[in-house]
Amino acid sequence: MKVICTEKSQILATNLARALKTSVVDVKYSRFPDGEQYLITGELDDETIIVGSVVDNDSLVQLILLIDACDSSDNQLVLPYMGYARQDKRFLQGEPVSARAVAQVLSRGVLEIITVNIHEKEVLKYFGVPARNISLARDIGSYIKSLHLSNPLILAPDEGALTFAEHVASAGGWDVDHLEKTRLSGVEVKMAPKQICAASRSVVIVDDIISTGGTIATASGMLYQQGAKEVFAACVHGVLTGGAYVHLMTAGIRDVVCSDTIERGCSKISAAGRIAQTIKNADSHDTKNE
Ligand code: R5P
User: Fold this and answer.
1) Nearest CA to ligand 1 atom 5
2) Cα 219 to middle of ligand 1, angstroms
3) In 3-state terms, what secondary structure has residue 205?
4) Mean pLDDT across the chain, nearest whole number?
5) What is the pTM of this model?
6) Tell me: the pLDDT tens digits for 14-73?
7) Which residue, by CA, sits nearest to atom 8 of ligand 1?
């Protein structure tokens, strides 16, 4: 078994290979003069773990090409971050179900798929092969533990993220609560007023994705108004679009951390161990609800 990856998942794939005690296949990536992508892989094994986050259109195309290049082996696809998963249904007539379109394309040429904290578990049914979702909630919990905060409150920005927050909090037996978020647009959210036991406490807001940072910035404003001592933010997928990291730091967040499902400077939590464990233990339970 060997691991192979797209350009956007090099560090995670290398750590995964280490955890699986195997090697990473060297791949050369380049472009044709017209901008089309090209790649050529080193020597493959009979079994290949293909690792590639879909963080933009280029990484999607590169992943499709990589899967095709591996057509001589039995492939398992690790999709650490699946872009387009948030358009998981047709909200308006005429729209695509983008998650379904991407899932179908990526199922061709692989035997099984592992996703990490997929935005909506219903998306798993769109893959044409068996797909399992794993959660990094407990890994985020372990990271928070390493901060040695005194009696922190773990906060989900909306009820949908509460189960995830509960699993994070179980790492330290911490208190959990949630806010009531309404999304007004892609960049704007509204929080219903809610009294939280935040006064003089360290609060860690946890979510699956930080995209524009609007959710966390709005929530932290509410928490500081209620006397929170300090606010941290932790997520699985640090999309961090439009200057979100700086936006959050200037909004008074003490620290923003994410995992390496999207490789960032603030990727202080690795998904490699949990993915390796899932691959080694093919019967491990699906933690899509965490
Ligand atoms: C939405 O349902 C997700 O769980 C996140 O809350 C959302 O993607 C965060 O987006 P933003 O950072 O743009 O507020």
Assistant:
1) 209
2) 12
3) strand
4) 95
5) 0.94
6) 999 999 999 999 999 999 999 999 999 999 999 999 999 999 999 999 999 999 999 999
7) 209
